Amino acid sequence: MILKSLFLPPSSSCKLFFSNDPLKIVKAKGQYMYDENGRQYLDCINNVAHVGHCHPDVVKAAYEQNQLLNTNSRYLHDNLVDYADRLSKTLPEKLCIFYFLNSGSEANDLALRLARQYTKHEDVIVLDHAYHGHLTSLIDISPYKFRNLEGQKEWVHVAPVPDTYRGLYREDHEDSVTAYADEVKNIIEHAHRKGRKIAAFFVESLPSVGGQIIPPAGYFQKVAGHVHKAGGVFIADEIQVGFGRVGKHFWAFQLQGEDFIPDIVTMGKPIGNGHPLACVATTKEIAAAFAATGVEYFNTFGGNPVSCATGLAVLDVIEKEHLQAHATEVGNFLMKLLKDQQIKHPIIGDVRGCGLFIGVDLIKDQVERTPATAEAEDLIKRLKEKCILLSTDGPGRNVLKFKPPMCFNMEDAKFLVETIDKILTDMEKECLNH
Amino acid sequence: MILKSLFLPPSSSCKLFFSNDPLKIVKAKGQYMYDENGRQYLDCINNVAHVGHCHPDVVKAAYEQNQLLNTNSRYLHDNLVDYADRLSKTLPEKLCIFYFLNSGSEANDLALRLARQYTKHEDVIVLDHAYHGHLTSLIDISPYKFRNLEGQKEWVHVAPVPDTYRGLYREDHEDSVTAYADEVKNIIEHAHRKGRKIAAFFVESLPSVGGQIIPPAGYFQKVAGHVHKAGGVFIADEIQVGFGRVGKHFWAFQLQGEDFIPDIVTMGKPIGNGHPLACVATTKEIAAAFAATGVEYFNTFGGNPVSCATGLAVLDVIEKEHLQAHATEVGNFLMKLLKDQQIKHPIIGDVRGCGLFIGVDLIKDQVERTPATAEAEDLIKRLKEKCILLSTDGPGRNVLKFKPPMCFNMEDAKFLVETIDKILTDMEKECLNH
């Protein structure tokens, strides 16, 4: 989306990157973008162009299907069956029902409907700073948004982010997993005392807007225990982090351990390499409860043959180009380079991540870990001058977030970290000279 | 969307056409679809494949842009500006701000947010039997859906459909326009007495699921008067009926007269000829109130260069192939042929429409106008055997709805009506023989 006025300057409803000096990008290929002067930029941000900008296999699949047929799902079509089949092979057996939609927001809205229909409960527990989408129902469950708008609905409960670097319980806590899960348990008990009932615990498998957080392994299992006991379901939002980005696993929730299976998984962004496509996967039981209302769910564009062909092509490329293994290899290398920088530059407080999902937490001081917000913004601006596109996240907007197209390689990682090193060195010198 | 299970038969959450004997369509071109045996079907239903299935110009535009760049709207791009510019030329000058999204449902949800943010009111007035989308917020304002689910929210008010054939005030009423508009006025007054405030009157410019209804001209103006007086806005949902389908005008709300301008217009289905694309157009004032919250609106896929290229190509084809004039010509011809049938077959109670949006209301008797539901279903089934795809709508599921791709031609109209004539004649004979 963009808000585009013909009579006004671009409105503030949509934030451009580098809004004071925005980029006009006209072309992209792999992990590179090109402006109208042919200047090449290394893209470290775009997790939507998952298998690389304009990947020829994905483009070709869409083109071929577009020439043949693109209609709604009122008719049978092999692509739909094939795609659901392929996706099911990446997931635990229990998650065997698929709904196809056009955006992560549509997916999260449907997940909410499924949870409520199945549990007959209304309330939702989310993590602080979470963002789950731009729809009315999702702003309600996104503290990142509702804190700045009309405020918190009575059916929404906010749990602390399981952030062991700057959260409530940190790396020095003897059992942060239990401590964070107990926070959810307390919320449930508090809600029950007020006569409220929990429909769902809604969480990004790796909180992104929250600051590129890696929840400690075992946390989801403990939370799921409490939530299931309360009659609720566990919804894993994989919109930002799914499809092999974390390297070791295809889905980020799998980082928690093999014994953890969510009740609902939502997918978006990378699923179609930019084509508007999304998916909700769930269990037979939840789907049956939804169907039992007798009210049909119809989505005009969702699951059309072109969308499915595109989704299938993305899965093919991930497999054919071994992008999951590649994400592990390059991600580990990048993490190592960044950790080397951490020793050299005191502004780097924490380097965390998995595969090609990495966060670098910039701080003003080691004790308070005060977010180095202005410094982060300055760094991003200087990186852009060096033709590297990076951005920040987290409530303090001080966490550098790396989530590049999956074809990002060792050379790119070296170039990126060398450039960061140079800029941080410059910034340190300038600081001393002031 | 479809719900696809690999271990269960297709679930009941998504209704297939002819679910007892569904079609497997593998190819489509223009107004024709082809099953896996190469059998050709005349498509009288698909208003999404607006300029014809797989139109080569639209397919080419998407392909070319897909090879070049497909990214989010964090960067400047000419397609976005060009597309907003082109759309603005089809609309009254006042509607000059555009938001791009991925589905009609996303558009209607945003329209609701805009209305509420601008008016600071909560309540919404909708027409009975209306359907505005599959999202949580839209099921709440869709009587077609919520009647079968948890029921009506306290902030939703339902006005009678301005249907002069089987509604509250009919063709014999001396002033049905005022009578129907007064119903809205009464709802507003009743809401005010309860201390509630109206954010919007939300209406399809031509109610579709409601039974292919053509509201009498002047109704929107009168309603808008009442709604504006109450501090609310008028939202015209053009998702089913926009983009020249009604022939005479580009937008269906324009059938009400030149003096009527909605505050918000939503667009979907035909806008991208099947590509997931949608749009909200509104005024500077409403957009400014939305931006003033300071909370950005970002839509990952919305307004990307490929979506805009596709939307532009659709506008080009409508123009180049004179599809609006074509819709008037073929629509008038089809209406005439159907009205001839009305004289011959007493089951045809009403033939109404404009351009290639036509409804044929089937009845059991002339006095009560009892919906001929079973007969309509039977007719649709027999048409399918004759390779014609048609469907029914309306609360009685007795209204044949014609909304074919816009390239539907005179020959198709003749073939369609001749076939309907034969089937109705057969049905009448069978009825006599029983």
From TrEMBL, chains A, B:
Q: Mind telling me which GO cellular component terms the entry cites?
A: mitochondrion
Q: Which UniProt keywords apply?
A: Lyase, Pyridoxal phosphate
Q: Which Pfam families match?
A: Aminotran_3 (PF00202)
Quote the PROSITE patterns the UniProt record gives: AA_TRANSFER_CLASS_3
Cofactor(s) the record lists: pyridoxal 5'-phosphate
Does Nucleotidyltransferase count among this protein's keywords?
no
Matching entries from Gene3D superfamilies are given as: Aspartate Aminotransferase, domain 1, Type I PLP-dependent aspartate aminotransferase-like (Major domain)
Q: Which GO terms describe its molecular function?
A: lyase activity; pyridoxal phosphate binding; transaminase activity
Which InterPro entries does its entry note? Aminotrans_3 (IPR005814), Aminotrans_3_PPA_site (IPR049704), PyrdxlP-dep_Trfase (IPR015424), PyrdxlP-dep_Trfase_major (IPR015421), PyrdxlP-dep_Trfase_small (IPR015422)
The similarity comment for this entry is: Belongs to the class-III pyridoxal-phosphate-dependent aminotransferase family.
Q: What is this protein called?
A: 5-phosphohydroxy-L-lysine phospho-lyase
Species for this entry: Cyanistes caeruleus
